Amino acid sequence: MTVIHGEVAKGFEGVRQAFEQGQARDAGGAQLCVYRNGEKVVDLWGGHNGDRPYTEDTLAILMSCSKGVTATLAHILVDRGQLDLDAPVAKYWPEFAQSGKGAITTAQLLSHKAGLASFDPETGFRVEEMVDWDRCTGLLAAMAPLWEPGTAYAYHALTYGFLLGEVIRRITGKRIGQVLQDEIAGPLGVDIWFGLPEREEHRVAKHFYPPKHFDPAMLVARQAALGVDMNTRLARAMSGQTMRTFTDFDVLNTRAAHAAEIPAGGGIGNARALAKMYAATMGEVDGVRLYSKATMEKARVWQTQGLGAPGDYAKLPARDPLRLALGYELANPVAPKLGEGSFGHSGAGGRLGYAHPDSGIAVGYVCNNMVWDSIKPDPRWLPWTAALTDILAA
Predict the structure, then answer these.
(1) Phi and psi of 330, rounded to 5°?
(2) Which of 327, 337, 168, 388 is CA-nearest to residue 261?
(3) What is the mean pLDDT of each run of 10 residues along the chain (394 residues)?
(4) Are 31 and 45 in contact (CB under 8 A)?
(5) Among 169, 159, 188, which Cα is nearest to 285's?
(6) Is residue 275 within 8 Å of 364, Cβ to Cβ?
(7) SS3 for the chain, per residue?
């Protein structure tokens, strides 16, 4: 039995019981934090961080929850009039116009439609190079798109953060890690970093895999069997991304990755930070609102409706779409959140952060056991999601 610590506000006692239920069979640990209308109502943690307890001070590798943080930074700039999402990326990053990319917009970067879902397979990019910002952004600036931008979408698992992060750097004159501290971590008083200081390293929980972890090579083989020509540039890039993405799970356990700025998947933080950030996208929290209601509404408009996968990948049996907005995921069958109107981002293995403006609820959940398979909802989410739904219905 996992011992659960922390507090819940009156009326949210069921969430504590549900969190305990969800973690009961988890060999790792987790934190859950919930805000409602700008007030913290749930702050729980429990389980194991190797041979230590998973505590309120433990930090998690945020995986793709990092993308939601990066999107939030972009929308802060939009709200201030510093970033026009419909303008060409090259307006801010002139070198990006190489190889036929002069018309790609920042909106297309945010919605995974830019045709840059992986590094070019001809470059010999290695996952260990994710720690080298200039190498990554230079490769992407020189690269030709893998498909005609705007005509299809595919998840930009590794490249998303470098693309958006470089736009943010060009506008602000600061590296994205500093922008995160200046615009979110500092004002909200939360623990979240792109580029973790060494003094905080001892707090990070390394993630680990359940015994029957997903094998990416099997997915690539299945795609080939279903008619994807694996010899095309697109397929070589996309299959390489699949393998690199799963390899990066181990790379992200290293001090080098924690110290680097990897804003697609290498953010470091906790559940409190995710929940408070999303709460501050909907309204004022401790005197801080990150952007206006108008910006929030535009940010959560579905951008990929009616689009499919590029090239041969359109032949594959269609899973339910990711339903991508401008940098955020919307509610979908594999990460339903609190249903329609929710926006945020999930992260490999089970991390999750989102806002649900209709109820004023913001959620942050982090963990170290890579349970979630991205095919169905994480079983650890289900009990406390149901409890929140019941509380709101009442």
Answers:
(1) -95, 175
(2) 168
(3) 93 98 97 98 98 98 98 99 98 98 98 97 92 98 98 96 98 98 98 98 96 80 91 93 81 97 98 99 98 98 95 84 93 96 97 98 98 94 98 94
(4) yes
(5) 188
(6) yes
(7) CCCEEEEECCCCHHHHHHHHHHHCCCCCEEEEEEEECCEEEEEEEEEEECCEECCCCCEEECCCHHHHHHHHHHHHHHHCCCCCCCCEHHHCCHHHHHHHCCCCEHHHHHCCCCCCCCCCHHHCCCHHHHHCHHHHHHHHHHCCCCCCCCCCCCCCCCHHHHHHHHHHHHHHCCCHHHHHHHHHHHHHCCCEECCCCHHHHHHEECCECCCCCCCHHHHHHHHHHCCCCCCCHHHHHHHHHHHHHHHHHHHCCCHHHHHCCCCCCCCEECHHHHHHHHHHHHCCECCECCCCHHHHHHHCCCCCCCCCCCHHHHHCCCCCCCCECCCCEECECCECCCCCCCEEEEECECEEEEEECCCCEEEEEEECECCECCCCCCCCHHHHHHHHHHHHHC
Amino acid making up residue 371: V
